[in-house]
C-alpha cells in the first residue's frame, strides 16, 4: 500500500471580482502505509480539494505529491492506482449492484472467473451479497453506499480516498457504515484517507486525524491527543461536542504562587484559579501575558458537599439550563459574566435555576496564547 507525502501543496481558484481563493495553502502532510487517516474540518476548508489533488483530478499550483517517494504531480489519474468514493454514490442506474461492482474490472479486461470471485468476496465483506441482482433504485441508502464503496475496493487500489461517504446516511446507518469502513481497513489493510466535517466521526474512525482550516492543517495526531491537547484555539473549539470552554485572562503571581485571573472586575465573579505546581513551573515563561484558559466540559463536576482536593479547583455557578443527552447531561452554567458548559452523568444533573458548587480538574487545564491562539501550556 502507498505512503503518501505532501509537501508545501497550494491550490488557488479565482472567485468573483478577481478574488483569489486559497483552497489549499502551503499544506504538508504524510500518510503512512496502511494507515486510516481522517481529514476533518468545517465546510470550505479545503478537504475535498486536497483529496482531488491526491487523486489527480486537480493540478496543484505549487508543491509536490509523492507515493512511496515518487512524485506523481504529472501522473494521470488513471495511472495513480487510486480509488475515490464521492459523497454522491454515482452508481449506474441501469446496471445491477453486481454489474456496478464488476464494471471497473471489465474495463481492465480482468478474466471473468476472477471478476466473479472478486465480486463475491467484496459483496460478502460488505454484507450486500443478497442484493447483487437489484438495481440502485431498489436498494436502501446504506446498500447503495456499500456498493459504491465496494466498487472502489474491488480494484484493490494502493490508495483509497473517501470523500464524506457517510454524510447522506441517518444516524444508525452512519454508525453501521463506520464499522464497515473499519472492518474493511482491518481485513484489506489499504491506505485510506477519509474526509468528513463531523468531528465525532473523525474521533471514532481515524488512527490519526488531521484537522484542517482555511486550506491548512492545524494539527495532526491520534484522536485522544488532538482532543486532550489541542494545538491551537481553532482545534480546541472545533474538536469536541460540546467544545472546549475558553476563558480570557492573564497569569499573575501572588505570594510566590501563580494564578489564572480571568479578565474583568473581581466583583463580577471572575475566575481566580491557582495553578498546580507542575503547571506553575512552566507558566513562569508567560507571566503577565494575556492567555486563554481551556477546559473540556467533563473537567467540571457538581459536588455540593465536597471539599476541593489537591489538583482541583472549586467554584460556585448558576445552572442556566439543562440539556439531556441520553446517558449524560450538558449543564449551561454561568458565573458572573462568564458562561460555560459542564458534561455530567444524567443521574447527577441538578435542576435549572439552582446555584451549585463545581469541582474542576486543574490538571485538565490547557493554556493558549491570546494573540496567536497557539497552545503554550
Describe this structure in words.
It is a single chain. This protein has nine helices and 20 strands. The chain has 377 residues and is an alpha+beta fold. It folds into two domains: 235 residues, P-loop containing nucleotide triphosphate hydrolases (Rossmann fold, 3-Layer(aba) Sandwich); 125 residues, OB fold (Dihydrolipoamide Acetyltransferase, E2P) (Beta Barrel), CATH 2.40.50.140. The strands form four sheets. A six-stranded mixed sheet has the order 6-7-8-3-9-10, with helices on both faces. The protein has a five-stranded antiparallel sheet with strand order 13-12-11-14-20. Strands 15-19-16-17-18 form a five-stranded antiparallel sheet, with no helix packed on it. Helix 2 crosses helix 3 and helix 2 runs parallel beside helix 4.
Q: What can be said about this structure in brief?
A:
With 377 residues, the protein is of the alpha+beta class. 24% of the residues lie in helices and 35% in strands.
CATH homologous superfamily name of the largest domain?
P-loop containing nucleotide triphosphate hydrolases
Beta-strand proportion: 35-45%
Name the poorly predicted regions. none
Radius of gyration (CA) equals 25 Å
The profile of the biggest β sheet is:
6 strands, mixed
Mind telling me the CATH class of the largest domain? Alpha Beta
What is the helix content?
Answer: 10-25%
| Structural class designation | alpha+beta
CATH topology of the largest domain: Rossmann fold
Amino acid at each position: 500500500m502507498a505512503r503518501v507525502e505532501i509537501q508545501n501543496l497550494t491550490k488557488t481558484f479565482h472567485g468573483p471580482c478577481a478574488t483569489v481563493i486559497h483552497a489549499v495553502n502551503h499544506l504538508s502532510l504524510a500518510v503512512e502505509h496502511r494507515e486510516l487517516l481522517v481529514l476533518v474540518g468545517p465546510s470550505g476548508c479545503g478537504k475535498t480539494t486536497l483529496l482531488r489533488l491526491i487523486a489527480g483530478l486537480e493540478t496543484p499550483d505549487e508543491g509536490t505529491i509523492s507515493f512511496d517517494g515518487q512524485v506523481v504531480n504529472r501522473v494521470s489519474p488513471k495511472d495513480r492506482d487510486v480509488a475515490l468514493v464521492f459523497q454522491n454514490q454515482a452508481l449506474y442506474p441501469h446496471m445491477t449492484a453486481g454489474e456496478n461492482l464488476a464494471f471497473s474490472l471489465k474495463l481492465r479486461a480482468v478474466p471473468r472467473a476472477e471478476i466473479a470471485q472478486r465480486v463475491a468476496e467484496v459483496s460478502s465483506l460488505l454484507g450486500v451479497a443478497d442484493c447483487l441482482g437489484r438495481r440502485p433504485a431498489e436498494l436502501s441508502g446504506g446498500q447503495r453506499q456499500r456498493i459504491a464503496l465496494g466498487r472502489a475496493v474491488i480494484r484493490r487500489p494502493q490508495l483509497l480516498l473517501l470523500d464524506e461517504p457517510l454524510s447522506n446516511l441517518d444516524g444508525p446507518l452512519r454508525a453501521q457504515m463506520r464499522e464497515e469502513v473499519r472492518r474493511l481497513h482491518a481485513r484489506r489493510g489499504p491506505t485510506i484517507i477519509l474526509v468528513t466535517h463531523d468531528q465525532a466521526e473523525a474521533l471514532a474512525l481515524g488512527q490519526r486525524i488531521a484537522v484542517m482550516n482555511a486550506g491548512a492543517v492545524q494539527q495532526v495526531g491520534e484522536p485522544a491527543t488532538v482532543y486532550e491537547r489541542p494545538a491551537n484555539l481553532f482545534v480546541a473549539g472545533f474538536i469536541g461536542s460540546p467544545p472546549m470552554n475558553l476563558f480570557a485572562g492573564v497569569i499573575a503571581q501572588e505570594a510566590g504562587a501563580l494564578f489564572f485571573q480571568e479578565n474583568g472586575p473581581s466583583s463580577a465573579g471572575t475566575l481566580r484559579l491557582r495553578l498546580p505546581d507542575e503547571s506553575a513551573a512552566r507558566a513562569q515563561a508567560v507571566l503577565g501575558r494575556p492567555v486563554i484558559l481551556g477546559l473540556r466540559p467533563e473537567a467540571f463536576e457538581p459536588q455540593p458537599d465536597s471539599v476541593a482536593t489537591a489538583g482541583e479547583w472549586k467554584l460556585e455557578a448558576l445552572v442556566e439550563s439543562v440539556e439531556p443527552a441520553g446517558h449524560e447531561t450538558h449543564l449551561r452554567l454561568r458565573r458572573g459574566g462568564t458562561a460555560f458548559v459542564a458534561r455530567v452523568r444524567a443521574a447527577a444533573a441538578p435542576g435549572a435555576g439552582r446555584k451549585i458548587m463545581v469541582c474542576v480538574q486543574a490538571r485538565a487545564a490547557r493554556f493558549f496564547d491570546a494573540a496567536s491562539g497557539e497552545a503554550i501550556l
